[in-house]
Amino acid sequence: MKILREIGVISRALDSIANIEFKECNLAKGQYLYLVRIVEQPGMIQEQLADLIKVDKTTASRAIKKLAAKGLIEQRTDTANKKIKKLYPTTIGIAVNEFILKEHRYSEKIATKGLSAEEVEVLAYLLTKVRKNIDKDWHFVKKGQTRIYE
After folding, report:
1. Greatest pairwise CA separation for the chain in angstroms
2. What is the dihedral of CA 29, 35, 37, 40, to 10 degrees?
3. What's the burial of 137, exposed, middle or buried (CB within 10 Å: 0-12/13-18/19+)?
4. Hey, where are the domains in the chain?
5. Residues in Cβ contact with 19 at an 8 Å cutoff, skipping those fewer than 6 apart
6. What is the pTM of this model?
7. What is the Cα–Cα distance from 50 to 113, expressed in whole angstroms?
């Protein structure tokens, strides 16, 4: 349980810092996560975004509406299927994302301070493996399945 506790503490601390620092960008709690992913993958749909961030569709929908109202993203109707709305960053959203990336780079530099380049690479590799393991369970539970604890 020590590993998950450490990951949780790190995650909450960085999220808290980000939420405070991103207020000047007119971003409410957690909205930066959505904007970054939309900039990384312009044209994605809401379901893809929800899956990337690991939130339900309703939570993603609320965040998307708020970001669109602030002029940071826009929803465009798909030409082939009018029911599909694709998400794109606006010029303002791209500019805000640059500030977010500066914060992310700084936080990563602080987080890995004192680690060798090899240790950083191993840490990234191991965390990716952990994320993939958790991702499988997240999908399993989101589909209504129940995990069996051993």
Report:
1. 52
2. -150
3. exposed
4. 2-111, 115-150
5. 27, 28, 29, 30, 32
6. 0.86
7. 32
Q: How far apart, in whole angstroms, are the C-alpha atoms of residue 98 and residue 148?
A: 43
Residue 45 to residue 76: CA distance in whole angstroms: 10
CATH of segment(s) 2-111 = 1.10.10.10
> Which residues, in sequence order, are CB contacts of 27 under 8 Å at separation 6+?
19, 35, 70, 72, 96
Determine the number of helices (DSSP H) and then strands (DSSP E) in the chain.
Answer: 6, 3
Residues 45-89: tens digit of each pLDDT: 999 999 999 999 999 999 999 999 999 999 999 899 989 999 999
By CB neighbour count within 10 A (0-12 exposed, 13-18 middle, 19+ buried), where does 27 fall?
buried
Long-range interactions of 9-16: CB distance < 8 A, separation 24+:
10/111, 14/107, 14/111
Helix (H) or strand (E) holding 75, with range, is strand 73-77
First-to-last alpha carbon distance for the chain, in angstroms, is: 15
